[in-house]
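Checklist before submission:
- one chain only
- standard amino acids only
- sequence pasted in full

Submission:
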Amino acid sequence: MNHTALKWYTANQQDTLLWYHYDTLAGRLILCTQGKTLCNMHWLSPCSTEKIPPPAAAELQKKLTQYWLDSEIAITLPLLRQGTAFQQRVWNILRQIPIGQTRTYGELAKTINTSPRALANACRKNPFPLIIPCHRVVAKTGIGGYAGETTGTLIEIKTVLLQHEKMLIHEL
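Returned file contents:
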């Protein structure tokens, strides 16, 4: 598994922002790019009325498709620099959680000498789900939250992602 640190870039402001969707087994991901820089990813709620142009980034779609085969996402696209230094530190730690495994907010918080709540807030601000696998972080008493939600569609997506990764590990 590739646990390289995330590489942050500043987007070229002359490039156009492009929004498109990618359908996964867990739900629809909305992707935003600016030139060759990935700016944002988020799960689309079923009741959203966002207008989505046709897919535009074949390389990213190929990487996302690969996730459903082996849960690896080796992103080579530059990622738009986002978040505070603390959030970026948390996001890099999340990338080190092995596929098919989970860690609790408390366990991870101890490794960086912070509180579980602060760590959860950094997870909530994750601009790149799947690339930064915040779905692998759970509460000590259950599944915890996902993208700031504790019930509903996003928790269902988190459950699908965790089940998918555990299934792949057992097949290896």
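Reviewer check: The longest strand covers residues 17-23.
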